[in-house]
Amino acid sequence: MEYNEKNIVSENIIIEKAVPEDVEELLCFLKAIGGETDNLTFGAEGFPATLEEERAYLESLKCSASSAMYVAKKNGKIVGNAHFTGMTRERLRHRGSIGISVLKLEWGQGIGSRLLRTVIDFAKDTAHVEIISLEVKSDNVRAIKLYKKFGFERIGHFKGFLKIDGEYADFELMNLYLVQKKVSV
Predict the structure, then answer these.
(1) Reported pTM
(2) Ramachandran bin of 11, using left for φ above 0, alpha for ψ from -120 to 50, beta for the remaining angles
(3) Which string of DSSP letters, residue by residue, matches 1-64?
(4) Domain ranges (residues) in the chain
(5) How far apart are CA 76 and CA 117, in angstroms?
(6) Residues pairing with 63 in the sheet
(7) How would you list the strands of the sheet with 77-86, edge to edge?
(8) pLDDT per residue as tens, the chain (185 positions)
């Protein structure tokens, strides 16, 4: 894997920061992945944002040291994305959360690992957080295995996190501790 400040290149996959020019393709990607799986907080209707809202969001990330979005592109097409959102309040600033998604056709190709490494590096080196949190559907064994590979620990179980077609879906809550936890005595 070759790394430089702007992007990570591996084989024919490029991972780079999402930019406002990606907005149309990004929203189409999110609609596609929403229809492929019930692992996300949205379905085939796609992510609930207009082109203008998402473009403004991506524009706001350009100058952010606490949040970022990355896209994985294969032959110029978005096949995955990941985001890190850092907390901004003083007492929460040591924490942030992530989300990752990859087109089903591309599962098992290492794209999720590359995206996860990228957002962890951003969280550690740029946002300077100490704890990264995520929620993952309890039956999403592939994703849980990936998160554990990177050191995430299960910290809880959320019954009924989502309600899909009248059925509750449970989620696992996981954290990655980037610094040694201090214990109060």
Answers:
(1) 0.88
(2) left
(3) -EE-SSEEEETTEEEEE--GGGHHHHHHHHHHHHHH-SSSSS-TT--S--HHHHHHHHHHHTT-
(4) 2-177
(5) 21
(6) none
(7) 2-3, 7-10, 13-17, 67-74, 77-86, 95-102, 131-137, 167-177, 153-164
(8) 333 444 555 568 999 999 999 999 999 999 999 999 999 999 888 888 888 999 999 999 999 999 999 999 999 999 999 999 999 999 999 999 999 999 999 999 999 999 999 999 999 999 999 999 999 999 999 999 999 999 999 999 999 999 999 999 999 999 999 987 665 66
DSSP, residue by residue, 147-168? HHHTT-EEEEEEEEEEEETTEE
CB 70 within 8 A of CB 118: yes
Q: How far from the centroid of its chain's Cα atoms is residue 86's Cα?
A: 12
Q: Which residues contact 163 (CB under 8 A, 6 or more apart)?
A: 169
- Would you identify the CATH topology of the domain 2-177? Aminopeptidase (3.40.630)
